[in-house]
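Ticket #4471: structure output looks truncated?

Reporter: J.K.
Steps to reproduce: submitted the chain below (101 residues) through the standard prediction queue, then opened the result file.
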Amino acid sequence: MASQVEALKNALETSHLVLVEFYTNSQTRNAWLASVVEAYNRQSSKHISLVSVDMNVDEALAETYRVSMAPAFLLLLRKKELWRRLGKLTVDELQEVLSEF
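Returned output as attached by the reporter:
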């Protein structure tokens, strides 16, 4: 889907951190991600953009980032991968990772 590709492309052209969530239609998206990102953006001088990618809709994007399973989470900055997590992620784990950046 062009909107996922465009959203990621646009986010990566900024100087913001980009959190990419890869999921499949057989899973529910992690709705709590948006609230954690919003809280981080309020508390930090840095900004994080959140992009969610349905791997069933855009297999090529998942392949580009070598993601073969969902859920998967990547933290990127200007196309450089800073962090990766395959499998489930908790609010506390994400907050701990974000506190490092």
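Triage note (M.O.): checked the attachment and the full token line is present. The CA atoms of residues 49 and 63 lie 21 Å apart.
Status: closed, working as intended.
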